[in-house]
Specification:
about 130 residues, mainly alpha, 4 helices, 2 strands
Length: about 130
């Protein structure tokens, strides 16, 4: 997977927005514990607070600072590569023909007929 050059990457990250506007966001929309944890993780992702490594090339003297990541599944920085792999895998499943993807809800009376093995639900239990 080839990443875009630094100049082409987004300059405004979710972490910067969260750091700058989190108090106002939490006041207007109080987050759940899970969302609060995700915001906390994303806010500190890949900054000096997380620690890091300095990578250097002995031949040319090039240096780069790489900070630690939060690893939160909701973090766009941490999950970007996994997302790209998932998209590539899903793209392989698309039929090479013109098609339309439809999603619809069946009336409860029809579910037993469509999913007889599962007792009328897709996963065998009500959601």
């Amino acid at each position: 997977m080839k990443w875009p050059a630094t100049s082409q990457r987004a300059r405004l990250y979710l972490a910067k927005i969260a750091r700058g506007h989190r108090p106002d966001l939490e006041q207007r929309h109080p987050p759940s514990k899970l969302k609060c944890r995700a915001l906390s993780d994303i806010t500190v992702c890949r900054i000096a607070l997380m620690g890091g490594n300095r990578n250097a090339c002995a031949a040319c003297g090039w240096e780069e600072q790489a900070y630690g990541s939060c690893g939160n599944r909701n973090c766009p920085k941490c999950q970007a590569l996994a997302q790209e792999h998932w998209i590539a895998a899903m793209a392989k499943l698309i039929l090479p023909v013109l098609h339309i993807h439809l999603v619809f809800t069946l009336p409860s009376e029809s579910r037993e007929r469509c999913f007889p093995v599962c007792g009328g639900t897709r996963r065998g239990k009500d959601r």
